[in-house]
Write a structure and sequence with these properties.
mainly alpha, 5 helices, 43% helix, globular
């Protein structure tokens, strides 16, 4: 568990993930509802598009040693799933044992509020900045 650059596979998935799903050996799960105003296909395509746009060359997106248990400010696969789901319009609950799932979200709220007040940024500029902060290209 040395960490490193995330591997993103939106075409085949990962064997261990597939096996866990097929064997029903997950610890916790949540179906992500399709956001209102979207079809299932539109949502699926947006999730794949956002997963592909996750910037694996961004040093903040590198997976930390031991999955980030030793560094609560780091990102890991839990952060990736949470960010991609939410960026696509899905709502995901907070999983008690998903270390670092919400890394950076407190800062995002602070960032939005301070930038609205100090710099009068447009909603579109804020969205772009947040998207970049969350690790997307």
């Amino acid at each position: 568990m040395v960490g490193g650059t995330p591997i993103i596979n939106t075409t085949e998935g990962f064997p261990n993930d597939k096996k866990t799903f097929e064997d029903k050996t997950w610890i916790a799960k949540q179906p992500i509802e399709v956001p209102q105003g979207m079809t299932q296909n539109e949502f699926d395509e947006l999730v794949i598009e956002n997963a592909d746009k996750y910037d694996k060359d961004n040093s903040l997106n590198e997976y930390p040693p031991f999955g980030g248990i030793l560094d609560p400010s780091s990102r890991n696969s839990n952060t990736f799933v949470d960010n991609v789901s939410e960026e696509s319009g899905g709502q995901i609950r907070d999983f008690e044992k998903a270390f670092n799932q919400n890394t950076g979200e407190d800062y995002e709220e602070f960032f939005i509020n301070i930038n609205k007040e100090l710099f009068d940024l447009s909603e579109e500029n804020l969205k772009t900045d947040i998207r970049s902060f969350r690790g997307f290209k």
